[in-house]
Amino acid sequence: MEEYMYTFLNQRYGLRSLTISHAASIIKAIKQYSTDDFEALQFGKMLRSNIPESYPLLVNQLKKAAADQVKHWLWEKHPSKNEPFILDQQEKIFSGQLHVDGGLYSRILNAVDGY
Question: What are the structural domain ranges in the chain?
Fold first, then answer.
């Protein structure tokens, strides 16, 4: 994929110096942000062909499956609560502000085991 990036930049800017400059900026940004941003880390790994290009799709499917399991678990735990409450609790779980028991994690792992 790295070769494609250089080809794209060369077609876009035409000049070798601009292509190299922009490629260097992209690589520098990936290095800078990959420690804090998972998507930047994924892109850097895809660029170096360390992971397949379909990897982000799989990650999104796993995130959705995990979110669905958390939402179902919250509805079971709080059947009389409304949707905004459930979504707020779900966000707190994913941000680490609300700690849950290991049963939820087992449920999530069982749900995504088929991926």
Answer: 2-53, 56-112
